[in-house]
Amino acid sequence: MFLVPILRGLVLALVGLGAGAGIAMAIGAATGAADTLEPALALGFVLALAGWLLGVGVWETMACEWFGCPRRAHEPSGWQRYFAFSTDHKVIGLQYIVTFLVLFLIAGLLAMLIRIEHLGAAAGTIMDANTYNYVMSLHGIAMVAVAVAVLTGGMGNYFVPLLIGAEDVAFPRINALSFWVIPPVVVLLLAAPLVGGYDSGWTAYPPLSEVNATGQLLFLMGFATFGLSSILGALNFITTVAKLRAPGMTWGRIPIFVWGVFTASFISLTATQFVFIALILVVFDRVFHMTFYQPKGGGAPLLYQHLFWFYSHPAVYIMALPGFALALEVLTHFSRKPLFAYKWVVGAFIGIVSLSFLVWAHHQYTSGMPDWLHIPFMVSTELISIPTGIIFLAALGTIWMGRLWLTTPMLFALGFVFNFLIGGITGIFLADVPTDIHLQDTYFVVAHFHYTIMGGEIFALFAGIYYWFPKITGRMFNQKLGNIHFWSMFIFYNLTYLAMFYVGFQGQNRRVATYPPQLQLANEVTSVFGFLLGLSFLLWVYNMVHSWVRGPKATANPWMARTLEWQTSSPPPVENFLHQPVVLHHPYDYGVPGAVHARTDGGEAHALGG
Amino acid sequence: MKREWLFLCVFWLLATAAGVAFVYAVPLMPASNAEEAALVDTDMVFMTVMAVPVFTGVTIMLVYSMFRFRRAGPPDVDGPPIHGNRAVQYTWFGVSTALTLFLAGFGSLGLLDLRGHGALKAAGQEMVVQVSGSRWFWEYTYPAQNITTKEALVLPLGRRVKFEVTAKDVIHSFWVPAFRVKIDAVPGLTTFTYATPNRVGTLNDNVSLRVQCAELCGLAHGSMETPVTVLEPAAFDAWVQEQQRKEAK
Questions:
Q1: ipTM of the assembly?
Q2: Looking at chain B, which residue has its C-alpha nearest residue A519?
Q3: B57 and B164 share a domain?
């Protein structure tokens, strides 16, 4: 029965929840504490998480060994693998992809609710202000989670080992653990309305996040737990790329998508701790009545913002870098030309990672931090446009004089370049202090980050989904429908978000159900195009589901691409390659006479003495 | 090939000219009532004008390449194996670096002005208004005039005002869109910002003449606002006296 591990996990989670809550309540009763709900939930969740993980597979595949019992590694076969604690990176990759695409659609539906609400200038079109705040906050945190995890955890897990010619990641069991931590996070975020929801956006600034409903506690613990998953995943990618590359896969021959995931992983590995601490201190303030962020007890609300953004600004590059890289990957293959200035692009990625740690306080120009901090953060932030500019150069240089094959993935990659251009340019307005002082916390900011993350990363994600769909499923999607999906998504996307820049200039706050009545027309226009944008995703869902079941069989390499994942069957076998691949040339040597990226038939390995 | 580049350059210049004309023709920013707003608006227009050639340049190259180099169906032959071009790469790097540093310098100067270190400082004696945010209303105290009000922020024309801002419960943000100034109201901290009203007006004349909370503060955040009124100095004095009389009662 394929549901056994999940049911076992659920039962143990309930046991943990009960035990934790019981202990907290007993301590509360013994000490005469007035309100024990939040301590009970906090301790209950910690033990429930432990119970869930043990039940779902950690005991069998990992923990049991620590106590000397033999490891029982029976990997289920067929579709049942996707409901189990599988250690196959391709299974885990698909678990991530499907989980986060479903979350993407749920959070997208919430966006539709927000746009319906904005058809009227006053709160209460369809929901009261409190419900609005919860819907907006959930939309925010769910989309942030999608943006952080779907490209690295999803596409990265599936394709990084294939692209470097490895059999799996370096730590397959930790890889499984980092995925199975996520379902409890989703449960916490979605269960919060049972205890009042949360109304402080995805940023959860205290003191607001310390005085609102108990739902906030669930948000905080969910977000912090998600951080654990991120750190484990990053550790795995860095080790995998460093240690498991196929013979001949030198650093100068690594496909660019791998570089994107690899460099982004350094941010996840080193910055996530800061947001974890920031969130846990809020939990301590709430649960133990400590005062880290309470001025009355000597705390500082601004401390949270510095800790939070020290992670959360670099985090946008966890989202963006693999997006850049994936778009460049697709542009290269469908231009039939080498990636322009490959080494400079790698340098740009490293430059972005380094600079990303020095820019966090540009989120705080109006926060009341000391004046002298403004100029250094403005300069460091604007410097990021230099390495980002190199990515545009690489994109344009690659398609110039190419032999462009305008398939669905190629269209999405080209759309990425256009959208991210607007996202990047509008970022300068927010990096510059005088203009940011007016634009901070307006819809201009909302439009800007949707252009970078949705217009950028998510368009790159769709390029990747269409590009690798035949590899993952072994079937071909309907290209005509894919192209219609691209054009409708691209056009309605731009029409939806361009008007948001305008209402931002005009002074419409973000995160509010209420806005000045003279901006109603612009909001209605945004809403209508937003609904059409929402509908365009139905084309994609239909195409994916229908093609997966009924689509024509795909060959091993339908795009005639040179990288390693296409030199094995679709879908790849469990061990990825039947023979150890040996890399001979650069992955993007299109047009170079006689250049072969790699041999996968085992012949060359013998020649090299491998 | 040469004619192709000539065509692209001419098209780029035309598109840029049209874009710049658009920036000047269409007022993106709302009407303003303070010296500081003029400063921010100049910066905003300047940056938008700088952005236009970048936007048109990249977009033209992208769209042109898409049509010029497209092939119907799967490729039968690869493109030329161009791995890079040193001259192009260094030029691109140099131009983007110069643009970035120029923008950073320009922004720094504007910032010094806004935060009270530049030319605006000499505008005259400052009047202090203490602003306090609570869920979900604003309170304005005029220490020199010894009055406190919650109904409206009333200011005299032509006098530089220093706002000393704090909050009583959670973080709020003091924002007057018509002045383009915004500063968070943080519990336990006093922050400050300046505005020098340069045009008489009320919320009825300019919908942006309002104090609006700009930091999410809970349930009624969206409606946490008060009207702003800018009066001639004589009228302001009369308002002050009226308030003092009211408070004395």
A1: 0.95
A2: B207
A3: no
